[in-house]
Amino acid sequence: MFLLPVYIHINDEETITLAIAIEKNENGTYRANTIFDLDTAYKKARLVTKPESNWLIP
Known about the structure:
The chain is mainly beta. Helix content is 12%, strand content 48%. The chain has one helix at 38-44, and strands at 2-11, 14-24, 30-36. Strands 1-2-3 form a three-stranded antiparallel β-sheet.
């Protein structure tokens, strides 16, 4: 499973940031399972190493 960051630009003053949990199927396609806000995505993430990016930190 992967957490894919998504940024949705509404207008100059509003942007929605979320993470979509996706998994790769046996046939090579991907399926989105869940949408998380950033706080929940950070809590659910299982980090193997220190993240290189700070996209999960609001």
